[in-house]
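Long-time lurker, finally posting.

We've been working with MBL fold hydrolase (Streptomyces antioxidans) and I want a structural starting point before designing mutants. I don't trust myself to interpret raw outputs, so I'm hoping someone here can both generate the structure tokens and explain anything notable. Sequence follows.
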Amino acid sequence: METCWEEAGWERLAPGVARRRMPQWDETVGVVVGRTDILVVDTGATLRAGAGLRSGITRLTGRRPTRIALTHPHFDHVLGSAAFAGCEVYGAMGLDEWLVRERETLREDAIRHGVDRDAATEAVDHLASPHHLVCGELSLDLGGRTALLANVGPGHTAHDLAVLVPGRPEVVFCGDLVEESGPPQAGPDAIPGHWPAALDRLLALGGADARYVPGHGSVVDAAFVRAQRDELAARFGVSG
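Top reply, 14 upvotes:
Generated this for you. Predicted structure of MBL fold hydrolase:
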């Protein structure tokens, strides 16, 4: 099965754990396969992208995904979610209210970054609210393995969720708290004064030997995350 992931364009991170860098916006989508459940981390920028991810994962595993974790509420990470009908959706505390309140902002942001207007409107109109909100940490039993959802923000947004997959190696899906393909993007919804502390929590979660999966770019190590934390602290004038 692991060879199949790589042949299908996924990067194997650990047994039963893989990620894919999506075209155009280079956002990362992750998958964690247990005996009874399959967790998808983020869902791509459009319904079409989400549908492709769902059918591809189903083809590779012989089972449909059952759970989704959304790392933060930006269009390239959430707008494919409606293609995963029937899945339980998890997000950081407050994500549900944000997605209702800022639906038009989400749609316009997608269009501004190149999503077709009709596709953006359809995805936003069908976007489901998270079923489960994480305050602190939540452990998911996927059958023979666990995934720990951790509300480590705010930072990149007010609703940043990380996903730790224990094992050898441990894998941490960071969302856009960490970016490798360019400097971390601090938009109008970023909370810069808290971002370095969010990365401290991320490092404490994964430890020195984990593989850290950024929202955009190549997989990095703890030293990279620590250096980015220090750069953000200097950039935003945060002491400590």
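Before you design anything, note these points.
The mean pLDDT is 95.
The radius of gyration is 16 Å.
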